[in-house]
Write a structure and sequence with these properties.
The complex is a heterodimer of chains A (about 350) and B (about 450). With about 350 residues, chain A is mainly alpha-helical. Chain A is built from 15 helices and four strands. In chain A, the strands form two sheets. A two-stranded antiparallel ribbon of chain A has the order 1-2. A two-stranded antiparallel sheet of chain A has the order 3-4. In chain B, the strands form two sheets. Chain B has a seven-stranded mixed beta sheet with strand order 7-8-6-9-10-11-13, with helices on both faces. In chain B, strands 2-1-3-4-5-12 form a six-stranded parallel beta sheet, with helices on both faces. In chain B, helix 11 links the parallel strand 10 and strand 11. Chain B is globular and about 65 Å long. Classes of the chains: A mainly alpha (about 350), B alpha/beta (about 450).
Chain lengths: ~350, ~450
Amino acid sequence: MSNENEKLTTGAQTESTMLVGARKMTFATFVLEYNALIILVLLVVASAIISPLFLTRNNLVNILRQQTSYLIIAMGMLMCLLTGGIDLSVASTVGFGSIMITQLVLFNGFGIIPAILLTLLLCACIGALNGFLVAYLKMAPFIVTLAMSFGIQGVVFIITRGMNQMLDVNKIAESSRALVRLYMNFGQNSDPFIRLPWRVYLTALIVLFFWFLLKYTSFGRLSTATGSNPVAVTLAGINIKKYKLTAYIICSFLGGLAGILITASNGSSSPSTTGGDYAMTAIAGTILGGADLGGGKGSVPFTVVGIFIMGMINNIMSLSNVPAYPQWCVKAAIIIFAIFLRSVVNARNSR
Amino acid sequence: MKTSKKLIAGILAISLLFALIGCGGSSGGGGAAPVEDNRSARDKVYDLIEKDLTAFNGIPAKVLQDRSGVIKGLPVEKKDKLTIGYTTGSLGSPFFVTMHKAIEEACAAEGHTLITQVNNFNTEQGLADMQAFIVQGVDIIFANTDVQAASAVFREASEAGIPVIATSNQPVNYDSNVITDILSGSYKSGFYVGEYTAKQMHKKGGSIKVGFSVIQIGSGDTESRGNGFVGGYLYAAREIDGNPYPSKWEAIYDGYTIWREFADKRSKSAPELGLELLSYGQTANSNPDAPGGREATEDLIAVLPNLDLLVVECDPMWPGAEQVLRENNRTPGVDIQIACPADGTRVGMEALMRGEIIAIGNNSSRMNAIGMMTIAKNIFIDGKDMNNIVANTYTPTLAITKENVAEFYNPDDDLAMGMAYELQTVDAYNASVSPTADPF
C-alpha cells in the first residue's frame, strides 16, 4: 500500500490508475466495466459522422419515441432477470394488452379508463400465473414463459379472429369519445413547449421509478439478492418466492402497459403485435446493459443504455441506407461484441 | 394455507383468461347478417361491408367522400429527379420481388434515387423506416406496411410535405393521409376463380368437398379471397342448376354467410348450394410461400383424404401444397382439383398449363408499382392534381385459365403480366356508380 501511495505522490506511474474502494480500476477495467456506455458514446459519435441527420432534433425525438415501448418492457424484464428468471411471454402480453383496449372499448362498451385498468389487471394475472409456475412450482422459466407465449398468442387470435381493429371514435358512445381522443392524443402527440412526445415523459417516469425502487428500497435490494444468492437470502428468512412472483407480475403488467401505449400511438391494434421482437430486444438490451442471465446483476441506467444501443443501431443504418438484410448482420456483430466484453468482465471479476 | 391461496390465485388467473376466450366472439367480423327482407341484396351487402370490411377488399364502395380537404403533403414543387423512400414488407416472394424490381427499373430509367428498407411485416420497423425517410427528407414515400397502425406516421409525413402512397392488403379510410392505397382486388379475384371453378366442377344438383389452404384467417387477403371464391362459386353453380341469382349481389350475400361460418367454425356444409367446406389449414407465420403452403396443407390432407377441391390461397404456396398432395398419393388435376385465387406466378401458370391447377386469380404487383410511379410522376413532374384520388385503388384482376394463360405467361417473368388501369378521382368514381348494376 505504501509503495502505491509513493507512486501517486511522485507521479511516477506506468499506467493510469485510480483507487476505487479497495480495488484499483485500471483503464482497461474501466473500459470493460462501462463498456455499454462507451459503446453508446462511440455509436453516437460514429452516427454523427456517418450521417449529418443523426443529431437533428427530429431524428433524436424519433429515437426516443421508438424506444419507449422497449424501455418500459425492459424494466419488467430487468426485474425478472435480477431474480434469476426470464419472461419470453412478454411480447404476447404486449399484443394482449394492445388488443384488449380495442376489444373492451369497441365491442364491450367500456370507457377507456376502466378498459385500461382491466387490461392491466389481466396482464398482471398473466404475470401472476407465470410467477406462480416458476416460483412455487419451480418450473423452468424459459420453457414456462415460452409456452405461455404461445398460449397468450392463441388467446389473442381467438379474441380478434386474426383481424386488426381501428380504434374508431365514431363507433363508440358519444359520452366516451372525449376520453378516447385524449388517450390517442397522449399516444400520438407531443407537449406544446419542447415538443417531446407525451409517451416519452411517461417512460421517463417509469424508468425513474424503477431506478429508485432498485437502488433505494429494500424490495429492490432483496429482489436483486434473490438472484445473486438465493440460498443466503432464504437462510436469512426472506421468502424469495414472493420476490420472484412479484417480478413476473411487474414484467407482464409493464408489457400490458406497453401494449396499451402502442394502441394509443397507432390508433389501432393488431394480433400480429404478439409476434413482435419486444422480448428479444428487451432481453438483448438488458444483457447489453450488464444484467446477468443467472440473476443478481443489472441496473436501470445501464439497461436504458442497452436499449438505446439497440435502437441506435437500427436508426443509423436506416439513415445511412444500409440495405435491410446486412443490417441484421451488423446488429448481430455489435451485440456479440458487447456480450463478449461482458463475459470478459465477468471472468475478471470472478478471479 | 398460503400455498392454497396462491393456488387459488393461479386458478383465478387462468379462469380470467378463459373467460376472455369465452367472451371473445364479439370481435371484428360481421356475424349473422340482419334479417330485413325488404332491403335489397345490394344494401344488405353494404351493411355487411360496414361491419366486416376485411372480407370485401375490391368491392366498389357505394359512394365515396370527398378527400380534397385531407392533408396529403400536397401541393409539391415540381422536380425531375426524385428521392423515393420505399419500405416493403418482404423481398422473399415473387409478388414483392416483382413490385420492388418494377420500381427499381422505373427509377433507374427516370434517374430517381430509390431508398429501400425491408420491414419484414414488422409494424414497428415499418413505422421506424418511414420516420427515417421523413428525417432524410425524401420527396415521396411508398409504404407497404400496416396502414392502420401507420396512420399517425402518414399524417406526420404529410404535414412535413412528403406525400405517401400506401400499398397494402387493407383498405384505408377516406380521411387517411395518403394519396391512395393501392391494393389487390382480392374479393374479385376470388370471385372470378370461384365462378370459373364452378363452371368446371359443379354438376346440376351436386356438391363438392372443399378444403382451403390459407395464409391467415382474419387477414384482409385471406378473408376477401376466400369469401370471394365462395360467392363466385355459388353464382355460377346456381346458373348451372337453372336457378340463377337475380344479380351478383345475392351471390355475394349468400357467399359471405357461408364463408363467415366456415371461417369461424372451420367447417360449413351447404350441399344444397353445391359446397361442403370441410376445413382449412393455415400457415404458421403468415408466410405466403412454399413452406407456408406445406404448413397449411399437411394436416388438412391427412384428415381429409376425400377432398374434391383444394383452394390454395395464392400460388406462391402451391409448390409446398403440391408436395404434400403427392406425399399423400393425390395427383393434382386428376383425383383432386386445385384453384388459386391469387397471384399468377410463373410456377403457378406452368402448373395450370399442365392441367394441375384450374384457375389462378391475376394479382400483378407490377401494377402496384406502376401505379405508385405514375402518381409520383403526375405529382412532381407533370404537376397534375392528385389531391382527390380515391382512397383505395384496386388493381384490376381476372381468372387466369387454360383459355387465356398465353396472354399472361412469360417464361422470363416470375409474375403474370398485369392489366392496365386508370387512377380515378372521387368525383369520377361517384359519377360512375350505378345503384342497379352488378358491382363488377
